[in-house]
Amino acid sequence: METLKQRLAKRLKELMRASVTANTQTRLAEISGVSQSSIQRVLTQEQSATVDVVEALALAFGVKQTHRFLLDNTEIQLLALWDRCTPQIQTQAMGFLTVASASGGVHGVASGASTGSHRVPPELLAAVMRSHEAHPVAEEPSVPHVDQHTHAPNSQKRKRSSA
């Protein structure tokens, strides 16, 4: 299991690689106000970061919702999609996910399974059936690129500076 120290170091490296302005320890230190030596110790997992340091680093990368800073790209994409859903769609999605996880995936959902208080709405069940019939081979879902700074969908990936 990944520790928080490991997750922070990994996430920080990912964001630095993707950044044009904070792509080195020195530049990140200038932007965040965190010393370069502290950044180096966090990256090498020699030091645990304080909440203040994590928040400063998150803000340096434009992450306004600092509680999401340690999430990986897939988790950020899922939350961005979730945030755009209405409460009704979120309730339906929770029902779908609960049933799917308890019944062995889409096949269990397609057979009309339900668990406890969660029942998949008939419309969603019909859509799953149609999708399963049209695409019997499991495919990776298409998830839009999400801007790492704002966590908003973005059709363009950030380019890394060659400097």
CA(first)-CA(last) distance: 36 Å
Supply the helix-strand structural class: mainly alpha
Overall number of strands:
2
CATH topology tier name of the largest domain: 434 Repressor (Amino-terminal Domain)
Global morphology: elongated
Beta-strand residue fraction: under 5%
Cα-based radius of gyration, to the nearest Å: 20 Å
Helix content: 40-55%
Query: Strands across the major sheet, in which order?
Result: 1-2
CATH class of the largest domain: Mainly Alpha
Poorly predicted spans? 137-146, 150-163
What does the main sheet amount to?
2 strands, antiparallel
Topology pattern, helix = H, strand = E? HHHHHHHEEH
Number of domains: 2
Count of helix runs:
8
**Overall pLDDT score:** 76
CATH architecture classification name of the largest domain: Orthogonal Bundle
Description:
With 163 residues, this protein is mostly helical. It has two domains: 4-70, 434 Repressor (Amino-terminal Domain) (Orthogonal Bundle); 74-134, no CATH class. The protein is built from eight helices and two strands, in the order αααααααββα. The protein has a two-stranded antiparallel ribbon with strand order 1-2. A hairpin with a 2-residue loop joins β1 (114-115) and β2 (118-119). α2 (25-32) packs across α3 (36-43). It is elongated. The two termini are 36 Å apart. Residues 137-146 and 150-163 have low confidence and may be disordered.
How do the helices and strands line up, and which of them pair or pack?
Elements: H1 4-18, H2 25-32, H3 36-43, H4 51-60, H5 73-84, H6 87-102, H7 106-110, E1 114-115, E2 118-119, H8 122-134
Antiparallel strand pairs: 1-2
Helix pairs in contact: 2-3
